Protein 1
Amino acid sequence: MILTLSEAISEFVHNGDSVAMEGFTHLIPFTAGDEIIRQGLRDLTLIRMTPDLIYDRLIGAGCASKLIFSWGGNPGVGSLHRFRDAIQNSWPRPLEIEEHTHAGFANRYLAGASGLPFAILRGYQGSDLLEHTQNVKLIECPFTGERLAAVRAINPDVTIIHAQQADREGNVLLWGITGIQKEAALAAKRVIVTVEEIVDSFEPKMNSTIIPAFVISAICVSPGGSRPSYALDYYERDNDAYIAWNTISKERDTFTEWLQREVLMGQKGPVS
Amino acid sequence: MSNLLESKEVLWSADEMMTVSAARSLTNSDTCFVGIGIPSTAAILAKATHAPRLTLIYESGTIDTNPTRLPLSIGDGELAQTALTVVSLPEIFNYWLQAGRIKIGFLGAAQIDKFGNINTTIIGSSYDNPKVRLPGAGGATEIAGACVNTTIICRQSTRTFLEKIDFITSCGFGSGPGSRHAFGLTGNGPKNVITDIGILEPDPETCELVLTQIHENVTREQAVESTGWNLKISDNLKVTQPPTIQELQILRALNAPAESKQ
């Protein structure tokens, strides 16, 4: 079903939902994140391996009551200041956190996509994280007796991803670094995909990943929808914007002014 | 800097010496799981100098990638476009890392203790009310657990090299001999810690990090003063060869585009 982004968010994302917006550095669904801010959604449990700038905005805008994550930095630049301010000072509201390792988090999605209650991995052991994190327990392998980490399946109410293309039947094609998007989509109850464009047919690409139409709730055409991250073969990562975010987000007032100007008042994303 | 070849005395920074030392530790036959920042710079420098066939793997799923410039993040397009193959996150962590197929993990740290345990999670005494919230584990916990060996690269000071760190994010040797086995960690743990002072290696008996190599122009006193525990110094302390002109030129060329933007 092809909807405008505004229609898709208002139909499929509700206050209090658990929302995963994935894309590992590549294809981060920024425009959809900004639309959630504009629609004023609240009390979301935000799920994402790397909160990145997309969740720094949502956290600073007060949309989230909980964050589940595994690495909360501005890649290659430093801190995520809104994320830090929320955890250290409860601004603009308290933020509960649940923290994992990347390997553990990836396996939580894997279990979720597989319809299993948990996944196992050799992980977390020797780390203090084990005693501070919910949804990880050590179990004994029934065959070898080895002690392994069990991580509970994660099944978001809604997963939102960005992809390069959809075809006219509503199948989705993404390529390049595809991260955890397939697992995050298949783990979710509802799936929204924003795409660069709709094409007549797909061509083979590096690491092509196809998500069939029958698991997708809505497709929204959103050219540039993952800026300032990137869409391989469409546009490059805007590294300068990641560096500039460090200054914009550092103080509450510069952030709030930016949010007002660029997201709340701005005409970002398709207004179709 | 531009007249390196003509200058009589080649000068270099402590960070450059650290990066060059880390690059030299890699060989053509290594497979290296690379963290972003100085570890990534060092790994790319190794490939651009003495180890062109070194296999670089980033947690974004890029296997045998051949970047010609420094990526800002572990998932830059440059890494995907120059890779032999790109795989999903469950595949990179489960099939490649967890299964023990990667020889060297190249990691950074905000704090490190004498057993090579590293903290990248919080500064302060309370996890729930941290003084400073750091990014967290990312791939590091399982890289530290499953790579055959790890190399940790970080600046050495009494702020970073501590008797007791605030949080163990990724295990080195835990509380000493036997800890890794008890935790079920399959890799051998830290092979060395490369700093702006020198190189530390674990004592085979006690697992405690010992200074085995010191960079040129650094004194033993400086090494001791930059360490938050009672640093042991090897009887056979070696002195690092200074960076060559070629190493410095390539390193500075790699860093130039990033520095011009900061």
Protein 2
Amino acid sequence: MQYLAGVPEHRTSTGLNNRKLLMWAFLGSDVMFFGSLITTHLIYRGQSLTGPAEEILNIPVTSISTFVLLMSSLAMVLALAAIQRGNIRGMRLWLSATAVLGMIFIGFQMFEFYEFAHLGLTPRTNLFGSTFLVMTGFHGAHVTFGVFWLWSLVFLSFKGKVRQDTSLDVEIAGLYWHFVDIVWIVIFGVVYLIGAYGVEASDAAHAVAGMLS
Amino acid sequence: MATIHDHAAEHGRHPGVRQYITIAVILGIITLIEVGIFFLEITSWLMAMILLTLSLSKFALVVGYFMHLKFDDKRFMALFVIPMIAMVSIAVVLLAVFGNLTR
């Protein structure tokens, strides 16, 4: 249990904490995972023959949910800053705020999915429906897992298992949470804004290629 | 065998609460600008460039400051940035081939 709590300053061949190294390696692999989902969606965008597609995206509502997720990232770093100063109550407050904001974001996503279903868009409707809902659904699943993780940290803090000397536990959870945030930053920019505007995938690719060159 | 980095020393290099709030305000403003640009009547090519640049700025701010990658060991950055470069390169090639980039 001591190891799980991140208590020992164990020696490693790299000089880096193994758990933090593992989290970064996982995030690197998740970049590839979400990258493939986003790319697949971009390739198939504009190729749906039946049913609703990009035109049903609700930008004002999604802008609010994006802002909510950005603010949850702020709450997460404030929780980390609190525990690093030994402020347990502050950490509980900010972790709870992060989890609640995450739940609000999931609420927005459920509302969006419900509206889409109401308008006739399901994963089976067309290429837009299957690629968009799989991509945003996996993101929502990541957020949901993160919310459980955050509440478990709050719960463990009441048992005295999250302390200033184990702040790495909060930092690792924070890395995961911020990653979920940056994935949404990309989805919101590339899929929602550029996609809803009607920019072709080729235009987006031209823009990326131009930025890389 | 090297020893684990002194976390207390690392935390000393992390941004403070005021800096975190400043970053969050900047992220909020960039999001507002993104949504504002969305409603402007501009060409799709310019639109894609601006929105991608703004998204990239937000991405860099969160990764650099909230995830502390700017202040942490560079090997953490390598673990994250190398797959990202690989993925963006693959995406551009796939879009070029299947997204009719040359159309």
